[in-house]
């Protein structure tokens, strides 16, 4: 009984890739995890018109010492101050400075020190979804998007890895653009987590091993994070991704802010964003706080 979990832990840790990411800033109360979904485009992959590697999905998870844990999606085009580079889109931090600069930028924006950095290779979403036997995904409008490869009839459908990957990448046919895409990415993550703890996975050692293999081969973490830390992160994620979880974006006042030189950006409300992240930090954040933020 002990040998199998130990094997899975050892096997999973051997597959994890590590990267220097944490800033070394003084710790803030609670635990904070920065998730970055990165996507390296290639000629034989789904092409959504963006070249090179980008942090396409950026999510900040905070578990306070007391109160409500939350998941805050940070739009990749958020107009922010990047240390050493001035004001630009948030995903520019990853492009020019990798995980370390992305972490430092998010810390400056939120006031929270990142304790764990988890990078998810979006190309690996396909194998991860297939490792749990597929997932049910829902979208309430038809899509035929050649950029992402997503063809969808309005409603809920059982989806394999290839379709789930297109579902997470589709942006140009979404009325909300990147905001809508981050919501769909959260949906895929939530569905994978539900399937991962289902009896079909928990009582099937072959599926357990395939899930561990798929998860750890698509993840890159900071040098201080191991598989046990990931398991501890997953526990509050179940609550956050549930029906009563606190999930949303910071307060946005303009989805097409054009300051010049950086194109169209997402502008956060400068009058309320600091108070918003204070509530995230102390656990007083509520569903009402995030529900009112999307224009």
TrEMBL record:
Pfam families: LytR_cpsA_psr. Gene3D superfamilies: LCP protein. InterPro entries: LytR/CpsA/Psr_CW_biosynth (IPR050922), LytR_CpsA_psr (IPR004474). Residues 54-197 form the Cell envelope-related transcriptional attenuator domain. PANTHER family: POLYISOPRENYL-TEICHOIC ACID--PEPTIDOGLYCAN TEICHOIC ACID TRANSFERASE TAGU. Belongs to the LytR/CpsA/Psr (LCP) family. This is LCP family protein. The lineage of its organism: Bacteria, Bacillati, Actinomycetota, Actinomycetes, Actinomycetales.
């Amino acid at each position: 009984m002990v040998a199998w979990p130990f094997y899975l832990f050892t096997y999973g840790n051997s597959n994890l890739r590590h990267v220097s990411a944490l800033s070394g800033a003084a710790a803030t109360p609670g635990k904070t995890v920065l998730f970055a979904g990165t996507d390296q485009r290639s000629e034989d992959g789904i092409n959504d018109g963006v070249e090179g590697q980008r942090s396409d999905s950026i999510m900040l998870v905070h578990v306070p010492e007391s109160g409500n844990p939350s998941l805050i999606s940070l739009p990749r085009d958020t107009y922010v101050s990047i240390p050493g580079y001035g004001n630009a889109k948030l995903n520019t931090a990853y492009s020019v400075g990798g995980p370390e600069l992305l972490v430092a930028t998010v810390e400056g924006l939120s006031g929270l020190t990142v304790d764990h950095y988890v990078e998810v290779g979006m190309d690996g979403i396909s194998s991860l979804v297939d490792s749990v036997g597929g997932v049910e995904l829902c979208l309430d409008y038809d899509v035929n998007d050649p950029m992402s490869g997503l063809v969808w009839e309005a409603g809920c459908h059982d989806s394999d890895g290839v379709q789930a990957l297109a579902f997470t990448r589709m942006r140009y046919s979404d009325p909300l653009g990147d905001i809508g895409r981050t919501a769909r990415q959260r949906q895929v993550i939530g569905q994978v987590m539900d399937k991962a703890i289902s009896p079909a996975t928990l009582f099937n050692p072959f599926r357990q091993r395939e899930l561990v293999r798929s998860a750890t081969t698509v993840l890159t973490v900071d040098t201080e994070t191991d598989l046990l830390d990931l398991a501890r992160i997953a526990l509050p994620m179940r609550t956050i991704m549930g029906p009563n979880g606190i999930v949303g974006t910071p307060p946005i006042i303009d989805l097409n802010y054009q300051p010049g030189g950086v194109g169209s950006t997402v502008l956060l409300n400068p009058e309320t964003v600091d108070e918003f992240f204070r509530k995230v930090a102390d656990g007083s954040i509520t569903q009402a706080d995030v529900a009112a933020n999307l224009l």
